[in-house]
Amino acid sequence: MKKFLMPLLVMGVAFAAQPALASDGETIFKSNACVACHSIDNKMVGPALKDVAAKNAGVEGAAATLALHIKNGNAGLWGPIPMPPNQVTEDEARILAEWVLSLN
């Protein structure tokens, strides 16, 4: 019985900890719904991430603002289609925003 429960317990812990392992922006981007509407280089439903980076280059507080938009959603900045809120933590939103801004 122990031989069966121990691997099961280890797998459960590994799956539970998986979201916490996403520590870089590209991993967060690829593992969330972001990829349904955005790509790095080309406009899809939403703007290309490089366009977001270019628009915000040198803007003070851009990372914090972008993180809020990622977490809470926004509307009207890039056209009529709103961006819905994303199921990410505040830390993941911050990491993702900083990564996006590094793409220019």
Give a description of the structure.
This protein has 104 residues and is mainly α. It is built from 6 helices and no strands. The protein has helices at residues 2-21, 25-31, 34-37, 49-56, 62-72, 90-101.
Summarize the entry for a quick read:
This protein is mostly helical and 104 residues long. It has 6 helices and no strands.
Q: Helix fraction?
A: 55-70%
- Morphology call: globular
Write the element-wise H/E pattern from the N-terminal end onward: HHHHHH
Cα(first) to Cα(last) distance is 55 Å
What value does the Rg take, in angstroms? Answer: 17 Å
Q: Which structural traits does this protein have?
A:
single chain; 104 residues; mainly alpha; 0% strand; globular
Sequence-ordered SSE layout with sheet pairings:
Elements: H1 2-21, H2 25-31, H3 34-37, H4 49-56, H5 62-72, H6 90-101
Helix pairs in contact: 2-6, 5-6
